[in-house]
Design a protein that fits this description.
This protein folds into 2 domains: 5-95, 2-Layer Sandwich (Beta Polymerase, domain 2), CATH 3.30.460; 98-203. The chain is 58% helix and 11% strand. The protein has helices at residues 5-14, 51-64, 80-89, 98-117, 122-126, 129-148, 151-156, 162-171, 181-203; strands at 17-23, 37-43, 70-73, 91-95. A 4-stranded mixed sheet has the order 3-2-1-4, sandwiched between helices. The chain starts with a helix and ends with a helix.
Length: 204
Amino acid sequence: MNIPTAKIAVLCQQRHITKLSLFGSVLRDDFTPNSDIDILVEFEAGFTPGFLRLHDIQEELSALLDHRPIDLVTPKFLNHRIRDNVLATAEVCYDAKDDQVYLGHMIDTAHKALNLVDGVSREEFDHNETLRLALTHLIQIIGESARRVSRDFRAAYPQIPWKGIVGMRSKVVHDYLNVDEDIVWSTVTDDLPALMIELEKILN
């Protein structure tokens, strides 16, 4: 079957998909004109589509693949008994080279955090629980994105405090699950502006 990889790549970039692979009968000799196509997708860190969004993506992929029925799944959809085999045998059609994707996601998320505190005083921050929770979530997303950057990429840019950024996921929340407001405020107002400048230099 002819796979329009260029068009699939464009779709993946538009839909926050970092990796798209084929698996199942489409890779076997028993694949027929009536067979559906099993597709495994992975999304950017911090981006989790709902079922309606997944259905839209499924329909768009079907249109690119001769309008065949598509069975679209993420790794978490796979039963643990078959997951390892599927991941080992799947044929990759698109790979975003996650480093660039995650770097961009870190920058975008940092922008969101800084926009939220623009013009906000520390006193206003202390009395706005919704803002505190939102910033905590954004900091954790930045840390998770940094965790997914490859070791080779991190080694190439030692000026970025990768270990510290990854550690932000847990540092902003105590072991007892309380948010450390001082750390959240300091991270967003002191650390993120400088970090964003360095990350943008790399991405550009």
